[in-house]
Amino acid sequence: MNIGKKLKSLLQKNKKYFNYLKHLTLKYPKKNDLLVYDVVGSEEIKKILFPDRDFTVLAVRGEWFSVHPILIIKVLYYTVIKKIRLRMSYDLAFISLVKPKLLITLIDNNHNFHRLAKYYKSEFVCIQNGFRSHNCAKEFDEIPTLFCFGKRDIDLYKDHGVKLNETFPIGSIRSSYFLKDIAPTLENKPTYDICLISEYLFGMEKPDYEVTEEGVRLLYEWTFILSDYIKRYLDGKNLRMVIAGRQRSTESAGEKEFYKKYFGNNVEVFPSDKEYLNSYRLSYKSSLVVSYCSTLGFEALSWGKKVLFFPHPDEKNLAVDHSKSRFFKTQIGTFEEFESKMNTLLFNLSLDQFEEEVAKDKEYFMSNHLDTYKIIKSYVDKILDN
């Protein structure tokens, strides 16, 4: 093998390590009273909570790594002297240089964030951004200040012995922002009869798609079944349906191909867009929202929308077992059961009747506070401005 081929082989084998090198920086972490943990969610925190407040972001998914000499020395101190694992040591070193009064994250299920509160004495605030499973709750020991969707989340953690500090069951930050700033600009009359919240998994339109995890397998199987049920249900009916896509515009080709096999060109798939909040707009403009067990389904329910949850009958991890309502206890198995439930929601039950059926349940799962994001902002401002 000549030198050129050897070099090419070396680069290919170590490609991921060379990719890391591209993300290294010598910049010293900027000192700040507010540190946002995770690049993911930081844009929403900026847009919704703190458009006029400066903060420092700690990247935790490899977007960049600081290799400033002082930070490296601190990493070695935490790793060698304190015997803390490397990932945690880096985070602690970064935080110790920023010296924040408060750390905040929109990724409430990040284990490292909760563990950091044991090592660094400051205020830690996490904002729930997604419906949490039973398995998720099992993996925590203690959670700092938590702004969560509803009492269901508090009960979920307590049932698994998780120590909770301050908890505020005040609903969804995105939902409150949408209702206050975007919904008033939309036409109040429904545009669509049905909005399907997609649970498409990247690549599942391909015949050789492999399923390994149990939870993914159930979602995978039921997505095919639900799509087939809806196709059969729409046949011969003059109903307009839209699909709120899961993938972003640049990655949505496979998702559109998947649904096209079922619905052809009769149903439009809109890609996910956090900036424009496509999925929220589509759900808001629909008479009925159909969801596997998505966060948006519970958010739409809190707005007063009719929602049909359609989890796999074997799905225990996302069980909404508190509920007594027939519209949460779906456990639909056959097409005939699905058809009956859809007919009831679309044609036989008024919105007021549905609201009466689910009133207690929906508040348990998702508090409907229009001022959720203002409550969080006020809490943080009070700490930072003292």
From TrEMBL:
Protein name (database record):
Uncharacterized protein
